[in-house]
Design goal:
two-stranded antiparallel ribbon; mainly alpha; elongated
């Protein structure tokens, strides 16, 4: 650890200076030699560092989501060039360059925070060894050694011997109980943070190796904290527990307000947004307008939750616009079908009329003629009402006989005129 500490020795002076400045403020409130003054100084150091790392945290979120989106393409490249590792790496780098993603971006907050972590560890280790460091002089060193957090000295560790703990003014039982509780809380907060990410903020529509990797880290990180935590001083445990709680709260805020598309968190967010918009008939917040704008721009590529949101607005008589606003109209503008196809909801579907039978069409013609008072038009199926005398003699059929009255009634009822084909004799 001395080699690692020497590598980060350039930052121990700024870290010790920040701690001393916070200690001067809290020391005036709680007393300079109390654990509250030194413990809150470490907590304030964490908060200051994490505030400075917020831009990197935002970049981490974008990089993580971009990697989730690229997982199917990456899997195709791995299967296509599984026997050519060099070509596989080249295609991966080409994919990263085309999409503007960087796999290391998701590790930026941890990498940026590491120098401060090792610098604080080196400062607390020097306090336990009774060595001055940075801007911590002999007077501040003596004050820090007297500081106890719930009975455990600031520089004590779980693995310290009884003699070393007694030299710091405490007992081995107090140190191990306090450090064990803090290690459990530190591991539990890390587990809950990772579990929250996996269960609420992961796109469940795409099954990728990235999800399996994150699921594995959900169990690996807490075990790592539990194993290495027994070698951390109490002050470092305060630092790491504070940063875990900060990460958990920061992630809860992001999941609640800017969830991953296709996740359960997005379904809950769009449900809240739909209720908010329908009550006010408008989108009031800028963040919500950006979400609605992104959903409208997707078109047919919307997921299930986004289509449900657009359909809900349409049923409420609202229509989402490309700029992220909504307008109110007499009829809903567009409803999106399950396959993403827009359907008009204001007008009913045009249905084809049912096919009528021949008798229904004839009866409808007669009924219509009677209703209008017009004379029923002649059809080929009705016999002419002209008297037989008026017909020329040459128009009579060969055979000379007129059709009987029964044949005339049959012709008027819709059957074919003329002699019918004789039935074939039955075989005996």
């Amino acid at each position: 650890m001395d080699t690692i500490a020497s590598l980060f020795s350039f930052i121990t002076t700024p870290v010790s200076w920040v701690i001393v400045q916070f200690h001067s403020v809290y020391g005036a409130l709680f007393g300079p030699d109390t654990g509250w003054a030194w413990g809150l100084s470490i907590v304030s150091l964490v908060i200051l560092i994490r505030i400075c790392l917020i831009p990197l945290f935002v970049k981490q979120i974008k990089a993580t989501r971009a990697m989730q989106t690229l997982q199917p393409e990456m899997k195709k490249i791995q299967e296509r060039y599984k026997n050519d590792k060099q070509r596989q790496s080249e295609e991966m780098m080409k994919l990263y360059k085309e999409t503007g993603t960087n796999p290391l971006s998701s590790c930026l907050p941890i990498l940026a925070q590491s120098p401060f972590f090792f610098a604080l560890y080196h400062v607390l280790n020097s306090i336990a060894s009774n060595d001055t460091i940075g801007v911590i002089n002999d007077r501040l060193l003596e004050s820090a050694q007297k500081a106890h957090i719930f009975g455990a000295p600031l520089a004590a560790k779980f693995t310290d011997s009884s003699s070393k703990v007694e030299a710091l003014g405490s007992t081995i039982t107090d140190v191990r109980v306090v450090t064990a509780i803090m290690i459990v809380l530190m591991s539990a907060s890390q587990f809950f943070t990772q579990r929250q990410l996996m269960t609420k903020n992961v796109d469940t529509t795409v099954k990728t190796p990235f999800m399996q990797q994150q699921k594995m880290l959900m169990y690996v990180f807490p075990i790592m904290f539990a194993v290495f935590g027994i070698n951390f001083p109490v002050g470092v445990l305060v630092y790491w527990l504070t940063t875990n709680v900060w990460t958990m709260g920061q992630q809860m805020y992001v999941i609640h307000n800017n969830p991953t598309p296709g996740s359960k968190a997005q379904a809950a967010y769009l449900e809240r947004l739909h209720k908010h918009v329908t009550q006010r008939d408008k989108v009031t917040r800028r963040r919500d307008r950006a979400i609605v704008k992104a959903i409208v721009a997707k078109g047919r590529d919307r997921n299930e939750f986004e289509r449900k949101f657009i359909n809900g607005l349409s049923k409420a008589g609202l229509a989402a616009q490309p700029d992220g606003t909504v307008i109110k109209g007499d009829t809903a503008a567009v409803t999106v079908a399950e396959d993403g196809t827009p359907m008009a909801t204001g007008t009913p579907k045009r249905q084809q009329p049912k096919r009528q039978s021949k008798a229904q069409r004839q009866s409808g013609t007669v009924t219509g003629a009677k209703a209008t008072g017009e004379q029923e038009p002649k059809t080929s199926l009705t016999k002419s009402e002209d008297p037989e005398d008026a017909k020329p003699a040459g128009a009579a059929k060969k055979g000379g006989a007129k059709p009987a009255g029964g044949a005339r009634s049959k012709a008027q009822s819709g059957q074919r005129k003329g002699p019918q084909r004789p039935k074939s004799p039955s075989k005996k």
